[in-house]
Write a structure and sequence with these properties.
It contains eleven helices and 17 strands. The chain is an alpha/beta fold.
């Protein structure tokens, strides 16, 4: 398994991104200076509208910079021809792929285009690379499956396999989990992390999966509108407050103690809770959702004991046992 060697593959130097309207420059973000190292997985995070997709397109050479330079493996991406760039960088975009009458093998094999002849003929080595890429993403044996009949998660795996088959040192993905359900979002993020470690490729992806990014990223690029880009390990950005400031809203808080976002509710009642740690945790979650604040045990405040399969309410009206959280919430709603 490979380890990060802190050898730069992509270098962004004082770059400005945005658009040109006739002779007028319309910058979205400026003074961006960043690096990605070999074998590293970086997640690009930020609120909607801060310019994440524009940055991805600019780094991919699909959009010109408004200033500064971007180099990949030491070469300026804007002076490289398309074939040379395609041997250094592969890109997976958010847009769904609609390609009828193509097998999974056909789709993945498209990644070999920078390495084939004028007619796109696959050599034995090319076919081996395609099969290896499919195996790495868990699509072994899918050669003749119709791409259009795959699930969304399988399609995304096929597009990642295509990027692997392109055999570039750098892979960039724009919202790779955007159309997936939770299990597939987790699987794709875990897959990308594993690929970065085992293939020594550098991976950059933009995502809104904040909780997953905190778990799998080697580093995070934290982008905010009209503010400097923050870069660091997930833990550093959490501990120095950057993460909380970037996503702070009145409706929720970021809990630095466990890395989770917590919705803020309006509370109308107080109660204290003790007992089994796991049951207490989920009991408190349910209480908060129903507008009941949890506080330290004190006289005059009802108390819940969560143990085994029973919740006991201790109050001035006597003790009451409940067999489920649903029953507990019902009993509390009637409690004076």
């Amino acid at each position: 398994m490979s380890e990060i060697q802190y050898q730069s593959i992509l270098t962004v130097s004082d770059v400005a991104i945005g658009y040109k309207n006739k002779n007028t420059l319309l910058p979205i973000a400026e003074n961006i200076s960043l690096e990605i190292y070999k074998g590293e997985m970086v997640c690009l995070l930020g609120p909607n509208g801060c310019g994440k997709s524009t940055l991805i397109r600019t780094l991919a050479g699909m959009q010109l910079t408004l200033g500064g330079t971007i180099t990949i493996d030491g070469d300026d991406i804007h002076t490289m021809n398309l074939e040379s760039l395609a041997k250094k960088m592969s890109v997976v975009l958010t847009d769904g792929v609609n390609v009828p009458n193509m097998t999974v093998f056909d789709i993945v094999a498209l990644g070999r285009y920078p390495h084939t002849n004028w007619f796109g003929t696959l050599s034995k080595t090319d076919a081996e690379v395609v099969h290896s890429a499919m195996q790495k993403v868990g699509l072994e044996g899918f050669d003749n499956r119709d791409f259009q009949q795959l699930s969304d998660g399988e399609k995304q795996r096929a597009m990642i396999a295509k990027a692997l088959a392109q055999d570039t040192p750098f892979i960039m993905l724009d919202e790779p989990t955007a159309h997936l359900d939770l299990p597939n979002r987790v699987e794709v993020m875990r897959l990308l992390k594993t690929l970065a470690r085992t293939t020594y490729k550098s991976i950059l992806l933009s995502t809104h999966e904040l909780d997953l990014a905190l778990q799998v990223s080697d580093r995070i690029w934290l982008m905010q509108k009209d503010k400097p880009m923050q870069c660091g390990t997930p833990e550093d950005l959490v501990l120095n407050g950057s993460f909380e400031r970037a996503f702070k809203k009145q409706s929720f808080d970021f809990d630095i103690s466990n890395g989770l976002f917590k919705i803020n509710y309006d509370y109308y009642k107080k109660i204290s809770v003790s007992g089994d740690a796991v049951r207490t945790f989920w009991t408190i979650r349910a209480l908060h959702r129903h507008g009941i604040a949890v506080c330290e045990a004190q006289e005059g405040i009802p108390h819940i004991i969560a143990s085994n399969d029973v919740w006991t309410i201790v109050s001035g009206q006597g003790n009451q046992q409940c067999q489920s959280i649903f029953e507990l919430l019902s009993a509390l709603s009637a409690l004076k």
